[in-house]
Amino acid sequence: xxxxxxxxxxxxxxxxxxxxxxxxxxxxxxxxxxxxxxxxxxxxxxxxxxxxxxxxxxxxxxxxxxxxxxxxxxxxxxxxxxxxxxxxxxxxxxxxxxxxxxxxxxxxxxxxxxxxxxxxxxxxxxxxxxxxxxxxxxxxxxxxxxxxxxxxxxxxxxxxxxxxxxxxxxxxxxxxxxxxxxxxxxxxxxxxxxxxxxxxxxxxxxxxxxxxxxxxxxxxxxxxxxxxxxxxxxxxxxxxxxxxxxxxxxxxxxxxxxxxxxxxxxxxxxxxxxxxxxxxxxxxxxxxxxxxxxxxxxxxxxxxxxxxx
Length: 309
Description:
Blueprint: H1 2-6, H2 11-35, H3 40-66, H4 75-86, H5 94-111, H6 119-136, H7 144-153, H8 159-182, H9 186-190, H10 208-232, H11 237-258, H12 271-283, H13 288-304
Helix pairs in contact: 2-3, 2-4, 3-5, 4-12, 4-13, 5-6, 6-8, 7-11, 10-11, 10-12, 11-12
């Protein structure tokens, strides 16, 4: 039943899945009111977080459908919705969602490079969004690899295209430097270029999110093996997007391992590529019974996993 429902990409699917997430979000937020006395600031914090989630879902769905990263179905959106719900108990700061939104806005420009329209502007914008992301999370600079991977894969290797992301990146950085200089806070700006010591990834081994992340990675790898043989044998635009998704997944995993201040939310970065990769893996499965089992288990897990964190 779920396979038939998710096998179509319609506005009603988006609305129903969004309603499911809102219910899970409100249920998770209800526990905050049980543990704290009612305060207007807490209510505003919850409302702003929900608003950011809605924007994130919109852009995720837009990127997937606009760039044909899956077939005409709702698999990726469903998987993204379910996995994101796992993190609800630990995503308590709206700033985390702002960072995730900036990351998705950055990816929107990267994956849209498959189109021939305005590549120079898209590359400038990708550098621009990455720069803002860098100001909030300096370790995100490693995603610059994704920009130049996209340039290489889509054969847009000309001087202007190579320089555009750098100019875009320097624009917010220059403005931020000016702000810090004007208010005599240059130490804040210079701190962007001092990276803290590496924090062992064994941090996750003490957390339940570690096992959830391992499962996501395992299913992503299985999906890569299922989808890649057929995809890489055909020279088309999706082949380039598929390679870019795999590069994206590797970079996000490196980011999660290397970021010094680990709290579990950095794992949100690999939800975008992993959800799309797993959706593509499920598309290769011909039997609806297997799909229904997988989707049902994912649906049930949305109500169980958050209690394990």
